[in-house]
Design brief:
Strand order of the largest sheet: 1-2
Structural class: alpha+beta
CATH topology of the largest domain: Homing Intron 3 (I-Ppo) Encoded Endonuclease, Chain A
Shape: globular
CATH class of the largest domain: Alpha Beta
Number of strands: 4
Distance between the termini: 51 Å
CATH architecture of the largest domain: Alpha-Beta Complex
Largest sheet: 2 strands, antiparallel
Oligomer: single chain
Radius of gyration: 16 Å
Strand content: 5-15%
Number of domains: 2
Number of helices: 5
Order of helices and strands: EEHEEHHHH
C-alpha cells in the first residue's frame, strides 16, 4: 500500500480524461458490464490493476480527479482518503467569495469552458463549490437573467 500524503513526483504524467465528468470533476464513463456510470479512475484501476475490495476507495497520488493513470492510483479506506486530504492540505476551510469572483467564475466557465478543477485551484475553493456556483445551487440569487 502506498503512503498517505505522498505526491506523485517523478512519475509519468497524468492521463487526463477528456470525456464527461461528475460535478466534482472526476471522470465519468459508462461501464457496459455494470450497466451504469462509473468513475474513470475506478474503471481503469479494475481493468488494469485488479479488483477493488468492497468499501475501498481509489485514491490519487496526483490529486487530479481527471487522472486515470494507474501509476498514480492506489487503494485506501475512507479514513485513508481523509488523512490523505489533510496531509496534502486539501482540507480547506470554507472560503467566502465576492460577487465579482462568482461572476468571473461563471463567465470563465461559460465562455472558455475552463475546467472546474482549474477554477477551484485559481480561486482556492473546492471543485464542489465551483460546481454549485455554476449550476446555481449556491449563489442562485445572483444567476444572470
Amino acid at each position: 500500500m502506498r503512503k498517505i500524503g505522498r505526491k506523485a513526483r517523478g512519475l509519468t504524467s497524468c492521463r487526463y480524461w477528456k470525456g464527461q465528468t461528475y460535478p466534482n470533476g472526476y471522470g465519468r464513463m459508462w461501464d457496459s458490464n455494470k450497466q451504469k456510470s462509473v468513475r474513470v479512475s475506478r474503471y481503469y484501476y479494475e481493468k488494469l490493476v485488479g479488483p477493488i475490495p468492497e468499501g475501498m476507495y481509489v485514491l490519487h497520488e496526483c490529486d487530479n480527479p481527471r487522472c486515470y493513470n494507474t501509476r498514480h492510483l492506489f487503494l485506501g479506506t475512507p479514513t485513508d482518503n481523509m488523512q490523505d486530504m489533510v496531509v496534502k492540505g486539501r482540507d480547506m476551510p470554507p472560503k467566502k467569495l465576492t460577487q465579482a469572483q462568482v461572476d468571473a467564475i461563471r463567465a470563465d466557465y461559460a465562455k472558455y469552458k475552463t475546467p472546474q478543477w482549474a477554477l477551484a485551484e485559481d480561486y482556492g475553493v473546492t471543485i464542489s463549490a465551483i460546481s454549485m456556483i455554476i449550476t446555481g445551487r449556491n449563489w442562485s440569487r445572483t444567476l444572470p437573467k
